[in-house]
Each structure stands twice: as structure tokens, then as C-alpha cells.
Amino acid sequence: MSMLSFALRDTVSLLRRDLQHSLRNVSFVFVLIVPTIMLLLFNYVFGGTIGAGLGRVAHGVAYINYLAPGILIVAVGSGCAATALNLCMDMSEGVITRFRTMAIFRPSVLIGQAVGSLIRTLIGVVLVLGVALLVGFRPTTNPIAWIAALGLIALVTLGITWMGTLFGLVGKTPSGANSLAQLFILLTFISSAYVSPDLMPVGVRWFAEYQPFTPDIDTLRGLLLGTPIDAKSVVLAIAWSLGLTLFGYLGAQAIYNGNPAR
């Protein structure tokens, strides 16, 4: 059996273990509950006021159509916390230490966790999209744009998942790993998820426009609603996603391979 076959076999085995473990772990609930609460809260409690401030009539769409694409990215950010928490718990319980002593492809331990987290997060995104459709979200797009939107969500999820993996290794306790992962939830509040950056003070607006999530949200919103998409947003969305993926993967592998006591 070739080295590639061994690597694939070990990765699939650890992925299967991660998915089975997730069925008994409530951390997956974060991926669904948090964004769903934010969707309902902002739509039904703050939607009237925020929608008026955004010029809802001028835009010709209900606030839910502006809000829903942002909430889908919030769901991705919520998945980071679940990823970090699951991995840190495995580290704390000694499961990863046992894997280190086994004759397996070493990167498969983290890759299996990451792929499992990617699948869980994407399932959560689909469920949140279903809730958004039930409360009035009405995309006006074509099949090609839908495929592009799903591809973008998958790319963003990949980057956030590897950052969650890194946070799970850096955090000394599950609560510490979870706290680090909450950074991505906080970033969504200073983005275009809920209001346009144009309504923010100058300094905050600059940060909101160039942080990781706003380009993702603006691009996704254009794909789902058929509105014009700024080429800069597309470039930034792809660059941030690839950058976070590379940074998270290399950082996680370095910590995992370089600190056998952790």
C-alpha cells in the first residue's frame, strides 16, 4: 500500500471517528442556535429601525433579504467555536496523545478533525438558510450564482475551520479555546452583516470594509440577490479565505508537531 493510500485511510478513519463523536456532542448546536437567534432578533426586533436606516424602500427589498446573507457567514463564524472546543477537549482528555503514539499518518489527526468540522458547519449553514427562507428571505438569483455562492461559503468555512483548529491547540482549556474562537463572532458585529459600513464612523467604516467578513458578505449578498458585486470584494473574500486557511493549517501543524506534551 502506498504512502498516499495510508494517509487517505487514516484520514478517513479519523474523520469517521470525528463525525460519530459529534453526534454525542452538543457543541454542534452553537452552529445552528447562535445564528438563528441573531436572524430572528435582528429581523423581528431591530429590523424595522435598521431597515429604515438602510433605505429599505429605496433598495426595494425587505430587511430580511439584506440580513440573511450576513447571517449565513455568522453561522460559519459560529462553527469556529465548535471546532476549537471539540479539539481542545480531545487534547485535554488525552485522546490526541494516544493518537500520537500510534503508527498513523500524523497530519491525518488534524485533517480528519478539520474535515469533520467543515461538514458540520456546512450542514449548519444549510439549516440556517432554511430558517431564513421560512421567515421571508427570497433570493433572486440563477443556478450558476447559487453554485458560486455555495463555493464561496465552502471556501470561507475552510479558512474559519482551520483557524478554529489552531485555536483549539493554542487554548489551554476548552473555555480558553472557545474564548479565542469568539473573535470571529465579534467581527461579524463590525461588518456589513447587519448594517452598511457607510453608516458607520470613518475609522470603524474602514475596519469594517477590510476585515475578513465584510467582503464575504457583500459578495454573497450580490450572488444571492443579483445585485452588483464589487470586484474588490471578490478579491478580498478569496484572499482572506485562502490566507486564513494557510495560516491556520500551517500554525496548527507546527504546534501539533512541535509540542508533544500538549
Architecture overview:
79% of the residues lie in helices and 0% in strands. The protein has one domain (3-258). The protein is elongated and about 60 Å long. Helix 2 packs antiparallel against helix 5 (63-93). The chain is mostly helical and 262 residues long. The mean pLDDT is 81. The protein contains twelve helices and no strands.
Summary, kept brief:
With 262 residues, the protein is an all-alpha fold.
Tags for this model:
262 residues; 0% strand; 79% helix
**Could you estimate the helical fraction of the residues in percent?**
over 70%
Strand content: under 5%
Shape: elongated
Radius of gyration: 19 Å
Oligomeric description of these chains: single chain
What's the main sheet like? none
Residue-averaged pLDDT, rounded?
81
Taking the alpha carbons of the first and last residues, their distance comes to 31 Å
Instruction: Return the string of H and E elements.
Output: HHHHHHHHHHHH
Structural class: mainly alpha
Count the beta strands: 0
List the domain count as a whole number: 1
Helix tally? 12
- Low-confidence parts, pLDDT < 50 over ≥5 residues? none
Task: Give the helices and strands, then pairings.
Blueprint: H1 3-22, H2 28-44, H3 47-53, H4 56-59, H5 63-93, H6 95-100, H7 107-134, H8 143-170, H9 174-189, H10 202-210, H11 213-225, H12 231-258
Helix pairs in contact: 1-7, 2-5, 2-7, 5-7, 5-8, 5-9, 5-11, 7-8, 8-9, 8-11, 8-12, 11-12
